[in-house]
Structure formats: C-alpha cells, structure tokens
Design brief:
Blueprint: E1 26-27, E2 37-38, H1 42-48, E3 49-51, E4 56-59, H2 87-90, E5 97-101, H3 107-134, H4 139-155, H5 162-209, H6 218-237, H7 244-293, H8 299-316, H9 321-370, H10 376-393, H11 398-426, H12 428-458, H13 461-481
Antiparallel strand pairs: 1-2, 3-4, 4-5
Helix pairs in contact: 3-4, 3-5, 4-5, 5-6, 5-7, 7-8, 7-9, 9-10, 9-11, 12-13
Length: about 475
C-alpha cells in the first residue's frame, strides 16, 4: 500500500493562501512579503505522466533519473514477480520513465500525489528567489540552497515542468552571482574601512612612541596608548575578521610602537629617578647649611648667605614631588627662624632710630635752604657744620635710609659743582690763560676790521662777506671769554 497525502485546501501545506491563474502554473506575489507559488494542474499532470491500473506512475517526458525517487514507494522498471500489472505497465514505451506507485487511489489522485512532490521542490526554488530578492541571507548561503535544490532535481524523477524549474534555477544562479558581486564590493569597502581604522590606530601609536621622552607628558600618553590598545581589540571583534596576512603588518607596527613607547618610558623614569636622587642629596646639604645658620646674629653676612642658598636651591630644580615638598618645608623653616629673629631685631632698632629720623629731616631742610650755592665760600661753614651734625645724629630706620641719603646726596652734588665752578673762575693760571687769549683775539679783531674796511673800499661783495663773517666769529669768542 502506498502513502496517501493529506492536503489542505490550497494543495500545499505550510505555504498559506495562494491565487490560481487558471492554468495552475504561477501566481505572482510580492517577494518582500511572500514568494510566488507554483501548482501543477491536473490537466498538466495528465499530459506529463500516465498511471496504470495498479497505481504505477510513469513520466512521459522526463529524462532517465540517476537514482529512483525516495519520495514514494519505489518500484522496479518492470512489475514485481507475482503482480498482475497490465501489459502496458510492464512494458512502458521507451519515452516513459517510472516514477513510483500510489496504490489504493484513483489515477488522478496518484498524479496529484507526485505533482505535489514536484511542486514542493519548485516552491522551494520560488521561496529561495524571494529570499534572494529580499536579501535575507548572503550569496554563499543562497548558492548552497540552490545547489541542494539542483541536486535533488537531478537525482529524482518528477511529474511536473522540470524544464521550467531548471530555467528558474539558472535564473537564480545568475541573481545570486550578481548579489555575490555586490557583497564582494561591500565587503571590500568594509575591509578598507577596517584597514583605515587600523592604520589610524597604528599611526597615532607610532607618534606617541617617537615623541621626545624629555617633553612627553607620560601620564596622559600612557592613558592614550592604553585607549589605542583597547580600540585595537574592539576592532578585532568587529566583522569581517581580517585574515592573518591582512592584520599582521599592522599588528607588527603597533606592537613595535608599544614596545618602543614602554622602553622610552622606563628609560625616562630611570633617568629621572637618578636625577631626583641627585637633587635630593644636594638639597639635603643646603638644608644642613641653612639649619646651621638659623641662629646666627650676624644678620648682614648671614642674610647674604641665605640669598646664596636660595639661588642654589632654585638652580637645582624640582625633585620628586613628595620628597621635594618635604625638603622645602625644612629649608623654609630654617630661613623663617633666622629672618624672624632678624626682623624682630630690626623692628626694635627702627623704633630706637625713629627720633634720629626726625632730626635728620630737620637738617635736610636746613641744607636745602642754603641752595643754590651761588657763593660756596660764604656758605662753606654752614654746610660743614650741618654735615657734622648729620653724622653725629646716627642711623635712621631702614625703610627711611634710602630716601634721606638720596636727599643728602643731591645737596652734596650741588655744593661740589658750585665749588668747581668757583675754582675755575678764581684760578690764577686760568685767569692768565684767559687774558692771553683775550689779547690775541683783540689783535686778530683789529686786523679783521682793517681787512673789512679795505674790502668795503674796493666794493668786492664776496670779500666783504668773508671778512665780516670772520670778524663776527672772533667777537663772539671774545664775549664768551669775558
């Protein structure tokens, strides 16, 4: 007994509602929603196959199968021994190919059973076409599906329009190839983008590794290098995965940049640690000297010594922050002790010198009353007396010392200049030289006056102008000497 299929109203389980076009061949539907549907009509089945009295089905136009169909009960090319098959079933025509048997049913039911098997295969091809059009999978998966259908079609014997299905599979293969070409272009674009990102990561890593170690901001640079490494790992997880040949050149550069970066970082900090050690030792010596001087009462020389120590401290630069801050606290503490004691003494001294300031300000007013020194000989005694009083008064507060000394210097400079001018006027040798020059000028002037008179008498304009110019110059010199 053969199998009996239980059919839905459409004749195809699992496909859903379908539309028939009269001949029962193809019903067009949107590939984005559902595939087309193929259904072989009973009239078409009668044209493509025949059924004998025992339910044996023979394809009339099919090629010789490579293997018998596994979709129905297999039957030999000739009727089994002992069966009472009709003569026409036992000796089919040369163009016939045995398909299978569907016993216990009418001829039409047998044909419909085997056409449903063919329609199932055809509709799988239509479903695949719809999936290709919708881009539901990649070209490789589509090719595999198409190959399974083609293999199944080639290995079976079918009741249906095999040529139409073969044509559909050829069309599908071309569509899948076209989609594969697009996918290849897209894959190449994505690959190029991935490689560009790799190049960007590697280039930035190389910039960091080749930076001058002495100017590199190592904390932020280390953080950025870690970010680049995480970015590299994230890129490795993104599809499509690069092949070893594609990724290796970038990875070797990236690894080399990271190794060089780490080498430079370690060398920098090793050198800096040594420098910090040297700075620490040098500052310890300065601290020791500062602590030895903190109780000194020789404020003048000790102040200079502390200024020298401060200059040396600054010249050493900074050491390790924690150590340097601790050393600076000790160094500053020693200075504070000394300068605190010095300032206290200066404050006490300034208080004592406040009265001296008052007296010296009065003396300055008396000095300035003598100015200008038009006759230094007559004011010399007053000037010298005021100087003696000034020296006798003593020191003034430190903050007033500069201003009072400046005012005194201005008076002293004015008196000295007045004395020098007076000396030049009263020096006998100077007077003798001056009289000699006056005599010579008088003689020259007399000669020039005679020359001018002679030129005027001759009426020579050029000679008159020359003689007049020379005469005016000598008279001007004489007036200056007088």
């Amino acid at each position: 007994m053969g199998m009996r299929a239980v059919l839905g109203s459409s004749g195809e389980p699992g496909i859903g509602p379908v539309q028939h076009n009269g001949s029962g061949t193809l019903v067009g539907m949107s590939p984005a929603v559902k595939p087309d549907h193929h259904e072989t009509s009973l009239a078409e089945a009668r044209r493509l196959a025949r059924v004998d009295e025992e339910g044996h089905v023979f394809a009339l136009t099919q090629k010789t199968p490579e293997a018998g169909s596994a979709q129905a009960e297999p039957a030999p090319e000739t009727a089994p021994e002992g069966d009472s098959a009709p003569a026409e079933a036992a000796a089919p025509e040369a163009s016939e190919t045995y398909v299978g048997q569907f016993s216990g049913a009418s001829a039409d039911e047998a044909l419909q059973y085997f056409t449903r098997k063919f329609d199932e295969l055809f509709n799988r091809a239509l479903l695949l076409r719809a999936r290709v059009a919708a881009g539901a999978d990649n070209a490789k998966a589509f090719h595999e599906s198409a190959q399974h259908i083609s293999k199944e079609l080639a290995e079976g014997v079918w009741v249906g329009d095999v040529a139409a299905l073969e044509s559909l599979l050829v069309e599908l293969s071309a569509q899948i190839d076209a989609r594969g070409a697009v996918e290849q272009q897209e894959a190449e674009a994505v690959l190029a983008e991935h490689l560009a990102i790799r190049e960007k990561i590697v280039t930035e890593a190389e910039v960091l590794s080749n930076a001058d170690p002495s100017t590199q901001h190592w904390k932020s640079a280390q953080a950025r290098m870690n970010e680049l490494f995480e970015a590299w790992k994230a890129e490795q997880k993104k599809p499509p995965r690069l092949t070893k040949a594609q990724e290796d050149p970038y990875w070797k550069r990236f690894r080399g940049a990271r190794n060089l970066f780490e080498k430079n970082r370690r060398a920098f900090f090793a050198t800096r640690d040594k420098e910090h050690g040297d700075v620490k030792a040098a500052k310890e010596r300065l601290i020791e000297e500062a602590e030895q001087l903190k109780d000194s009462e020789d404020y003048g020389s000790t102040t200079k010594a502390y200024h020298r120590l401060m200059d040396e401290w600054k010249a050493l630069g900074r050491g390790a922050r924690k150590t340097d801050d601790s050393q600076w606290t000790r160094f500053r503490a020693a200075q504070d002790v000394f300068f605190g004691a010095r300032d206290k003494v200066n404050a006490e001294t300034d208080a004592e010198y406040a009265e001296n300031l008052t007296v010296k300000l009065e003396i300055l007013e008396q000095f300035e009353a003598l100015m200008p020194f038009e006759n230094p000989e007559s004011s010399r005694d007053d000037y010298q007396a005021l100087l003696a009083r000034w020296d006798a008064v003593g020191r003034v507060p430190r903050q007033d010392m500069k201003s009072t000394e400046a005012r005194l210097k201005k008076v002293q400079d004015a008196f000295r200049e007045a004395e020098e001018a007076h000396w030049r006027k009263t020096d006998p040798e100077t007077i003798a030289r001056q009289n000699s020059m006056l005599t010579q000028l008088d003689e020259t002037i007399a000669e020039l006056e005679s020359s001018l008179a002679a030129a005027q008498a001759s009426g020579d304009t050029r000679s008159i102008a020359k003689a007049q110019e020379a005469l005016d110059a000598r008279r001007s010199w004489r007036d200056m000497l007088k």
